[in-house]
Design goal:
This protein is mainly alpha-helical and 306 residues long. Helix content is 81%, strand content 1%. It has twelve helices and two strands, in the order αααααααααααββα.
């Protein structure tokens, strides 16, 4: 019951701060508009360059492909960057002294930190699902080729990426003790992460050495999963429109629809295993660190009493 109360309290604190909530909610929508306005034609032209001259795709297929690719990129970055913004509550509690006040009460530190994690995950998931619904709504106008299974798997992918982003941000924010620090980190992550995971620019456009290095980042596999499921229907339509397997293979590699790790194709199952394993490891590290803090405080109390 204490955990549930703390989770509700953290969520209310986040939504109460309009200066943090509204930018977090609006940012994915603004990015979607910017992507569609400035980047859509770039990716359509890049796709056309890889097609045989005899193949002419419909505007719906071209827009559907570009839209699906851009929305998958938007979701991949939002799941991480919004998690850092949502963790602002934990940092604010440290700055305002609320964290110490809460620990004075009969509340375990592990319960308090778990409440931050769950609240951050819920808030991030809510905003990212709103962005996903807007993205699907946009695709329904320009070119919707997702099957029910692909839509369902995309929701699962977003859920896992949110858990990853929440675990990563919780671990990092645990060491931050000022609002300026969390703002700086959030800005840094939002700027760099999109390039690291291949969201702003396909990893295939980088050099081979850098490609192999980026494949060690778990977020890359999360991005790959969303891309795979959002574009699978369109790729099937490409085949129906006379595009050969070799051309489809080239398009898939060029747009990171197929990931390779040192020239070995990474299966969908392997992507899920990497992402889920990383989430478990990050959460375990987070719990171990909290246990050590609890143990140190317990020893300090014993020394004080004696």
């Amino acid at each position: 019951m204490t955990l549930q109360t703390l989770i509700k309290r953290n969520i209310k604190v986040y939504f109460k701060d309009k200066g943090v909530f509204f930018p977090s909610l609006i940012t994915p929508l603004i990015l979607l508009v910017l992507f569609v306005t400035f980047l859509k034609n770039v990716y359509i032209d890049s796709l056309k360059m890889q097609l045989p001259e005899s193949i002419v795709l419909s505007k719906t297929l071209l827009n559907g492909f570009a839209g699906s690719w851009l929305i998958s990129s938007l979701l991949a970055t939002s799941c991480i960057t919004i998690a850092f913004c949502a963790n602002m509550v934990m940092v604010q509690d440290k700055v305002n002294g609320n964290f110490k006040d809460l620990t004075i009460a009969p509340i375990k530190i592990s319960t308090l930190n778990l409440s931050y994690y769950i609240a951050t995950a819920i808030v991030t998931l809510l905003i990212c699902y709103v962005a996903l619904f807007v993205g699907l709504f946009y695709l329904s106008f320009v070119g919707f080729y997702l099957s029910f299974l692909d839509v369902l798997l995309t929701f699962v992918d977003v859920f896992l990426l949110v858990l990853f982003g929440t675990a990563l941000s919780s671990l990092v924010c645990r060491f931050l003790k000022s609002q300026g620090a969390i703002s700086a980190v959030a800005s840094l992550v939002s700027t760099i992460y999109g390039f690291i995971c291949g969201a702003y620019m396909p990893i295939s456009q980088f050099g081979k050495t850098l490609q192999n290095i980026l494949m060690f980042f778990p977020g890359t596999y999360g991005t790959g999963l969303i891309r795979k499921h959002m574009t699978r229907g369109i790729i099937n339509e490409f085949a129906k429109n006379g595009i050969g397997n070799q051309t489809i293979e080239a398009i898939s590699k060029s747009f990171d629809l197929k990931l390779t790790f040192f020239n070995n194709n990474v299966s969908e199952l392997a992507m899920y295993l990497v992402l889920i394993s990383t989430i478990c490891v990050l959460v375990l590290i987070f719990l171990v660190l909290n246990y050590k803090v609890k143990k140190v405080r317990h020893q300090h109390k014993i020394k004080t009493i004696s």
